[in-house]
Each structure stands twice: as structure tokens, then as C-alpha cells.
TrEMBL record:
CDD domains: BKR_SDR_c. Residues 3-183 form the Ketoreductase domain. Belongs to the short-chain dehydrogenases/reductases (SDR) family. PANTHER family: 3-OXOACYL-(ACYL-CARRIER-PROTEIN) REDUCTASE (PTHR42879), 3-OXOACYL-[ACYL-CARRIER-PROTEIN] REDUCTASE FABG (PTHR42879:SF2). This is 3-oxoacyl-[acyl-carrier-protein] reductase /acetoacetyl-CoA reductase. GO terms for molecular function: acetoacetyl-CoA reductase activity. One of its GO terms (cellular component) is cytoplasm. Keywords: Oxidoreductase. One of its GO terms (biological process) is monocarboxylic acid metabolic process. InterPro entries: Acetoacetyl-CoA_reductase (IPR011283), KR_dom (IPR057326), NAD(P)-bd_dom_sf (IPR036291), Sc_DH/Rdtase_CS (IPR020904), SDR (IPR050259), SDR_fam (IPR002347). It comes from the Bacteria.
Amino acid sequence: MARTALVTGGSRGIGAAISKALKAEGYQVAATYAGNTEKANAFSEETGIKTYKWNVADYDESKAGIEQVEADLGPIDIIVANAGITRDAPFHKMKPEQWKEVIDTNLTGVFNTVHPVWPGMRERGFGRIVVISSINGQKGQFAQVNYAATKAGDLGIIKSLAQEGASKGITANAVCPGYIATEMVMAVPEKVREAIIGQIPTGRLGEPEEIARCVSFLVSDDAQFINGSTISANGGQFFV
Ligand code: NDP
């Protein structure tokens, strides 16, 4: 039977490309979203991928949502923790709410997604966790103290899960995208975006499908020995 993959924030942007790539490889896919139902319905209609609405920042909602996915599609074998937000401001102007919202979604959201599924993965002796971190978690970024903290935290999560899951057939890895052409990046003022592109040696933004291909590899049987690793896909903008 086909393995089941859960992609949080899987209804648009990078997540949508990941959902589609995994479906094309024969996995059963559940894609979640936060509130943009119109977009999620259009995505579901276009792809035939079932979508689920819950807030990854809320543990009880996540747990209930995951139970529903497992009732519909069977046990979750693969988690792609992709849902994420930005609430940018220079540190001296950053409000505590901006800090909290980003931490709750991007960092606690990963805990809330993986934790309810983890016992089942351990029991079944198989699991693939991929967290979508960011180049800005590796190098920091002006006006993104909150976001960079969460994305660096994601790397701590996967390195620790890798050690705990290894003996149970579970791997945990991260992808750190550079700047990718999604609504998140297109929302940045054009002048700033042009400046960003000027810093990318490849001379262009990445495409969501380029991140999806990294994920497809990390969840495949070919990647069984890759655990606690990070793939940086950033057009040569930053080397770890
Ligand atoms: P988008 O803003 O295009 O899409 C975000 C997705 O996450 C949407 O499906 C959204 O749902 C969902 N989402 C947001 N908040 C929540 C929440 N609280 N609960 C559940 N779902 C939520 O983002 P991108 O595709 O650009 O980014 C995807 C991931 O990649 C993020 O983690 C981001 O930090 C990371 N990343 C992106 C880069 C880029 O250049 N774009 C670069 C590096 C990393 P809804 O549609 O309902 O709002």
C-alpha cells in the first residue's frame, strides 16, 4: 500500500509543489492550510489532493486534524513540516506579538505536527520527517530575529529527532531554501526583491519545484542513510 504523506501548508507556494511532487511519486498526500479556503479548494480541485484546515500553532487542533487524516488515509509515514509565516520588523520595532506569532507557527508548529505522529512511527518502525527551514535560519537576516530564530530552531529539532528516531527507522532532515518565487517572497517590495536577486550568484529566485525535488529525495528509500542533515538549496547565496 502507498505510503501516506502529510504536508503542512501544502496548499500553496513551496508546500503545494511538494504535495504535487509526492503525489506524482505515488504517495497518498494530505495537504493542510491555515485559512485560505478558496486557494485550498482550488488546489484540491486541480490536483485531487485532499486538504485539511487547522492551525499548526495549536496542539489540540493539530492532534485532532492528524487523527482525521489517519482515519481517512491510514497512518502517516511522512511528515513535511512546511507551514511558516513571516512577521518582519527591525528588532527595535519588533512587537512581542510578532515574536510570539512566528515562534508559535514556525517552531512550536513543528512540535505540534510531529509529536502526535511520532509514537505511531516508532511502533511501525518507519518514518520520514522533513522540516522546511530557511537560509535565514543559517545566516540570520535583518528584520527577521523572530523568523531566523525559528528556522535555526528547526535545525536543532531535526538533529535531535535524528538521534532519537534512528533506531526506529525514522529519519529527520531539513531543507534550507534560499529565496523562492512564492507569494511570501513576491510580497516583498520589488526594489528589495531586486536587491535580493542581486545577491544570488545564480541570478534568479528558486522555483518551488526545486525544493520539492529535495524533499522527494529525502523521503525516498534511497535516502535511508541520510539523517540529521540539511540540504541547502539557495543558488549559491550562502555556504554552511
Ligand atoms: P506561503 O506563504 O506561500 O504559504 C504558506 C502555507 O502555510 C500556506 O498553505 C498557509 O495556509 C500555511 N500556513 C501558514 N500559517 C499556518 C498555520 N498557522 N497553520 C497551518 N498552516 C499555515 O509560504 P512559502 O511557500 O513561501 O513558504 C513555505 C515554507 O518555506 C515556510 O516555512 C517558509 O518559511 C519556508 N521558506 C520559504 C522561502 C521562500 O523564499 N518562499 C525561503 C526559505 C524558507 P493558508 O494558505 O491558509 O494561509
